[in-house]
Amino acid sequence: MYRNSPGDMKYKFSKGSFQIYLLVFTLNFVVLSNINGQTVKNLKTKIEELKSKSDFNPENPAYIDLLFELAKEQIHINIDSTLLLANEGLALSLKSNYKKGQGYGYLRLGDYYSQMSNKEEYKKAYDKALEFSTKYNYDQLKIIILNNYGTTLSIDGDVDNALKYYLEGIELSEKNNDNKMLSILNDNIAVMYSNLKDFETALNFHKNSIRYHSENQNEVLLARTLSNMAFANAYLHNFQEANKALDKAMLIFTKEGEMDWLSYCYEVKGIIALEIKDYTNALEWYMESNLLCEDLDYFTGSLNTYNGLAEAYVGLGQIDSAEHYALKANIESKTYNYPEALMKSSKTLSTIYKLKGNYKTALDYQDIYLKLDEEADLENFKKGLAMLRSNQKFEAQKEQILVEKNRELASQQALTYIALGGVIVLIIMFILIYRNFKIQGRFNGILQNKQQVLLQRELELKESNSTKDKLFSLIAHDLRGPIHSFLEIMQLYAIGNMSKEESDKFLPVALQDLSSIAEMLDNLLVWGKTQISGTSHEPKNINIHRLVRKNVRLLQPLAIKKSIDIINEISEDKVSFSDPAHIDIVVRNLLSNSIKFTNTNGSITISGKEKDGQFLLSVSDNGVGMNLEVQNRLFKKNNYESTYGTNNEKGTGLGLYLCQEMVEKNGGEIWVESVLNEGTTFYFTIPSKLKIKQAV
Question: Higher pLDDT residue, 461 or 136?
Fold first, then answer.
């Protein structure tokens, strides 16, 4: 019997000279002997508490999630209940458009049909679950689906696709730092290699699993992996290592009450004793294992122990007792359609009847054994070849992705050089425009005395020029320093006068300055467009959650650099009737501003709620904050103060100026609340979703 980690169903796999029974363990299945009745009780209590509330809504995601959790826990208590709960949760998720709930609903149906060995239905359910998890980027859900799907396919003999799903699950788990699933997935792959008798490869995957177990400190999972490693080491005749691992695992299983796994350890102890021809101890270990298996009604474990007892009695010369257990294993393996146990018992019966002098019967059992052994070897060869092909295909796909990423990186570097050239050109343009504005101002001053009719217009123009003068002066100052510094660094680097230590020190600073310049230019281009042709306004219904999510992804690298968590609390169904380009600018600038002024290991939260036909959004951080004086002049006209972030990120007030202009263009307001050294929250309002009246 060979097992992996955590789980619920018993399935069959062949293993040559030892019997391997795979007790499949997945994150979402419950182990037979370790069903947590208290967990089921707690879940039912929580469900009843929700239902008893006066404002209870069955479409509440919290209620739906509890249904799916209970469905998972009920899979061995009452599998019909699992089906009912999964269908109820899925129906509510579809009605309320709860996408994650729909994904979990199809997952639970897949688990149910997997238990029922309904291949057509579990494939439909798992494929649908994968579709939802991929489309909406539910990585944690997708990892679980890949594991459960892969395990079910492995049990059905489709090792090619099983390995593909396992490897994809490992890659996604590494991306999300999910050590628990990494340990489980590595164990599951080890199981497949062990059943192909490739125990060296299996041990490598088990060692990976051990490493992740050590990190998440899960004693039970660790013990399960140790017992599997012991089995592999027993097959490779590494008996000392096998016994050491078993002793540690047995202590944990005894303490935690995992009797099925304890019976497995006893069985492996028996296997080792048989291999070293210690038949007395082998008999004792198999007897202990058999007692537990019968208490648990664990028929596959019992079949293994019957074969082990028969072999031990043969070694002790007690042929009648050996015949009793070998015949029992042979008959029951036919009843349960378990060819591996049938093959083992047939081999032992052939030996027994040879010793008894009944050569015809011995020959008959030998023929059965040889036929089954040949079929098992052929099947293992096919599975091994399929796994090899699957692994090669997966590695080829990874290599292609790497090539594409390198190509993209080269393209980005080229664009960076182009952008730098563009910055220099824009500086020259800004200077020319600035001079033009100065000349225009003087010219208007000369005409003032002669054209009193244009007095008001001239005053407005002077005010505008003053604003622009200040803005361009500020921009020229902020651009000149970092650009000259970057050029000097590049020149030193080009002629080889910069050491690696110096380049490692100065280049990140220069790149940070360049990033700030790029942000400044983006805002400047938007502002320039509004000055030349005015701000167009093209409102439509837009999904605010998705717009925010897009900008979070865009600015995530900056946040990650400072270890800042960005939380999007806006519901997926929130819609506003606004100009998407305008709101995009507002969200991006406010979020960028929060990242700049939030300290390392800080957090930023984006929230929103509807009130009186308006949608109120807030971008809140726990950063440096600002005093009342700074707040009061923040949105005042002609205020474009150059400020520095917590990591000396440069910026101007142009971004906030644009935010104010865009919000007001969409009929909203923007304001700020802040406490020095505690944090800042920017608020702005925009219209709610436009409701279209339907014809009566």
Answer: 136
Cβ atoms < 10 Å from Cβ of 659 = 24
Backbone angles phi, psi at 642, to 5 degrees: -85, 125
Query: Token pair 């010369």 is at which residue?
Result: 317
For 416-449, letters b (16+ CB in 10 Å) and e give eeeebeebeebbeebeeebeebeeebeebeeeee
* pLDDT at 397 exceeding the cut of 70: no
* Position 15 in a domain: no
* Helices marked H in 14-138: 37-52, 61-73, 79-96, 99-115, 119-135
Determine contact, residues 85/95, Cβ cutoff 8 Å. no
Amino acid at position 163, single letter: L
Determine contact, residues 137/153, Cβ cutoff 8 Å. Answer: no
Measured between alpha carbons, how far is residue 124 from residues 79, 107, 116, 582 in Å? 19, 10, 14, 43
Question: Is the pLDDT score of 533 beyond 50?
Answer: no
Please check whether residue 316 is in contact with residue 279, taking contact to mean a CB–CB distance below 8 angstroms.
Answer: yes
Provide the pLDDT for residue 685.
93
Confirm whether 273 is domain-assigned. Answer: no
pLDDT class of 521 with cuts at 50, 70, 90: low
State both tokens at 477. Answer: 């100052």
- What pLDDT score does 503 carry? 62
- Compute the distance between CA of residue 625 and CA of residue 627 in angstroms, rounded to an integer: 7
Nearest to 682 by CA among 635, 612, 641, 642: 635
Structure tokens at 216: 């998440």
Token pair listed for 12: 């069959």
Domain CATH for 620: 3.30.565.10
Domain range for 469 is: 399-533
Same domain, 563 and 518: no
Q: Please report whether residue 213 resides in a domain.
A: no
pLDDT at 23: 36
Is a pLDDT exceeding 60 seen at residue 692? no
Other residues' Cβ atoms within 10 Å of the Cβ of residue 468: 18
Residues 558, 622: one domain? yes
Residues 472 and 557 in one domain: no
Count of CB atoms situated within 10 Å of the CB of 677: 11
Looking at 505, 533, 561, the residue that finishes a domain is: 533
The CB density around residue 361, as the number of other CB atoms within 10 Å, is 14
Task: Answer yes or no: are the C-beta atoms of 464 and 444 closer than 8 Å.
Answer: no
Q: What pLDDT, in 10s, does the model give residues 280-336? A: 999 999 999 999 988 887 777 888 999 999 999 999 999 999 999 999 989 988 887
**For residue 166, pLDDT beyond 80:** yes
DSSP string, 587-634: HHHHHHHHHHTS-TT-EEEEEEEEETTEEEEEEEE-S----HHHHHTT
Q: Are residues 498 and 415 in the same domain?
A: yes
Query: Are 449 and 525 in the same domain?
Result: yes
Tell me how many domains the chain contains: 2
Statement to judge: residues 546 and 683 lie in one domain: yes
Are both 575 and 476 inside the same structural domain?
Answer: no
Establish if 37 belongs to a structural domain: no
pLDDT digits (tens, 9 = 90+) for 427-463: 666 565 555 555 555 545 554 555 554 455 555 555 5
Tell me, what's the pLDDT at 141? 94
pLDDT value for 400: 52
Where is the domain boundary, 485, 518, 533? 533
What mean pLDDT is reported for the chain?
77
- DSSP-derived letter for residue 534 is -
Cβ atoms 606, 567 nearer than 8 A: yes
- Taking the CB of residue 585, how many other CB atoms lie within 10 A of it? 21
Residues 523 and 546 in one domain: no
Q: Please state, in angstroms and rounded to a whole number, the distance separating the CA atoms of residues 339 and 345.
A: 10
